[in-house]
Amino acid sequence: MDVAALADRLRAEAERANERRLLVLAGDRDAGIDAAYTALDAAGIHDDDVTIVTSREGFRFERYAPNHAANLLGRTRKAVVLDAHEKFSPNALGQVVGAVDGGGLLVLLTPPLSEWPERREWFDDHLAVPPFGIDDVGSEFRRRLVGTLREHPGIAVVDLESKTVERDGLTDPWPVRRRDPRKRPEATTAATAAATPAFPETAYDACLTEDQADAVDALEALRDPGHAVVVEADRGRGKSSAAGIAAGALAAEGKDVLVTAPTFRSAREVFVRAAAVVESLDCRSDGGENERRIETTTGGRVRFATPVDAAERFANSDGDEDTSDVVLVDEAAALPVRLLSKFLDAPAVGFFTTVRGYEGAGRSFSVRFRDRLVESDLSVTDVTLAEPIRYASGDPLEIWAFRALLLDARPPVDQLVADATPESVTYRSFDADDLLADEHLLREVFGLLVLAHYRTEPNDLARLLDAPNLSVRALLYDGRVVSVALLAREGGLSESTRCGMYEGQRVAGNMIPDVLTSQLRDEGAASPVGYRVLRIATHDAVRSRGLGSRLLAEVRDEFEESADWLGVGYGATPELLSFWRENGYGTVHLSTTRNDTSGEYSAVMLDPLSESGRKLAERHSRWFRERAIGVLSDPLRDADLDVVRATLRATESAVEPALSDHEWRVVVGASYGPGLYVAAPGAFRRLALSHLVDGVADLSALEERLLVRKVLQARPWDVVADELDYVSTGQCMRALGTAFQPLVDHYGADEPVVAEERARFDRGE
């Protein structure tokens, strides 16, 4: 069978079953491109329905460079050709596979499969972070990928060098049963039954499956305040389309709908569907030039905002023009729980999340955020979409992608690990060979790592298996993974590399040395060798039992003689800062810009292991304290109060306020007498910083928040009084004086001028 005949049969079978098929053309790149043309022509797929993802140019099809493959997310094509000869990445594969429509073909151009794993390519360069070279990079991801290509149903493999068909990929499936037209479901909840009028029939005419119609029906609840709807689905089930249909129907009623997602690209389908509904009802009032905003003749609108901006808009609207009636959060699992929680203050909110697939982000949404959602004042409705929109259930290409990229990786089931305790677990180190030798182990490790982060990509699987700077440590209970840490070796760089980093050169894979060297101007920071805890996760069934701390303690014991420091960098929250501080890590940096997605400032913390590590941590802890007053009153003046408190408390040593006699007189006067804070604000800042670092004075949490907001962040009195719920600015001012009394008593205990001033006020002078 030649390529043309094979492609014809694959396409015919795919159309009959409404499934997709994968055609692998392995061999010379030019021969593969020629064979792809032949295959697509034989399959009867028009050029307008084909996209090729390649670094080359000059094709008759639509073309994207590999780094722009994400443009296919949310789109549907009859055929996609992915050129894996140059600039191939697991991400690109994950991005394109979902774009192929039922009855279509994914064509993969590869080197000879027997040679591909050992070839050094563009993606390998990205894994070869200093001090490692490309020869240190593994080949296990591609080896595993090739194995799946040779084993999985629905995948045809052609050896272009021998001109033979190794596998025909034919499965002889049953013909697909065509879908019936969708109708509006019967009212299934009190909210939908009581809602009048319902969404128009046009909205339900746009639904392609019963699942999707059920989702739109549930979303009718958002017409009234106090409701939340959660729509979960694998990729390709039409959840974003359901969101868009509901958004259009709500806007047609005059509602203001705010849509947010990690990127607008993620939410584009929402706006396409919303526009179609509004236009079908003949109520669109704008010209349609702005793809991120739809306005209606009824006064409604659908508009986009980034997650951080969206949270701020409705949280601080106070009834102004930015007030929204409904917030729709698409790809919610790709946002951190702390940011998602801010949307619980919306009048009505819909969360749309991918359970498995490229956009998915593990279980932080379904496990951790769910608790906060249940505890909120919102009435919650859950909808799950199971039936694919673009292809039939059981599509072999979808099943293959889940397996090849571990998109469906999960931790062990709860019952298997429910009895784990720090005393009953075993500490283990795993390399790529260990993980590949046990598919269940690999899935459990990767499943927990997915859980540890709100955005995990297919590239992360390749890094786990092949990056020379990464290693895995885990705790096992009865052979099951209950806690896992991914460690990245950093530092130990050559003098020339350190010099380049100091002068602004970006050195991949060395985040902490890079921050300390290039941003904080410490050229020696990249010399000691350290291990950054890239991710750490404990199974949800056994959280809060001390397993994470046990794992960190084991890591420390293992590396105490072979490394200089352990470190971590993450989006700072009070809870995480407390966890890392309790495990011996001290703050050396807090970023001065927020993460665009999470809206959080990032903390860097170190746990020194050697003398050079201690010197590194001590000087950066000292420098951090020295610059704290300046940055907190300028770039960090809007940082969360409790983040600032926890960050400062996690520094390693006390701070002496070093006040002059005059400054002590001002502070004592403002604390115990009629003095004014504005007479020497610098003295108050040094005292506040000293207490927030060492915590020796007896202050309440409210008093410490007052020190942060007014003294260190220099916010106006009325703003501070309102935020901290003081009845007036006068009460707030008096509270600040009272808060400084314990600080005066502690830090001024040995100062004669303090005793003198105190005595005057005690005598009533």
Characterise this structure.
The protein folds into four domains: 3-167, Rossmann fold; 190-377, Rossmann fold (3-Layer(aba) Sandwich); 414-649, 3-Layer(aba) Sandwich (Aminopeptidase); 661-762, no CATH class. 42% of the residues lie in helices and 17% in strands. The strands form three sheets. Strands 3-2-4-5-1-6-7 form a seven-stranded mixed beta sheet. Strands 10-11-9-12-13-8-14 form a seven-stranded mixed beta sheet, with helices on both faces. Strands 15-16-17-18-19-21-20 form a seven-stranded mixed beta sheet, sandwiched between helices. α24 crosses α27, α26 packs across α27 and α28 packs across α29. It is globular. Residues 190-195 and 358-362 have low confidence and may be disordered.
Strand-helix topology:
Blueprint: H1 3-17, E1 21-26, H2 29-42, E2 50-53, E3 62-64, E4 77-83, H3 90-97, E5 100-110, H4 122-127, H5 140-151, E6 155-159, E7 164-167, H6 190-194, H7 201-205, H8 210-219, E8 227-233, H9 239-252, E9 256-260, H10 264-280, E10 293-295, E11 301-304, H11 307-315, E12 326-330, H12 337-342, E13 348-354, H13 364-375, E14 379-385, H14 396-405, H15 414-417, E15 426-430, H16 432-437, H17 439-451, H18 458-466, E16 470-477, E17 480-491, H19 495-502, H20 511-519, E18 529-538, H21 547-559, E19 565-571, H22 574-582, E20 586-590, E21 602-608, H23 611-632, H24 641-649, H25 661-672, H26 681-694, H27 701-712, H28 717-723, H29 729-747, H30 752-762
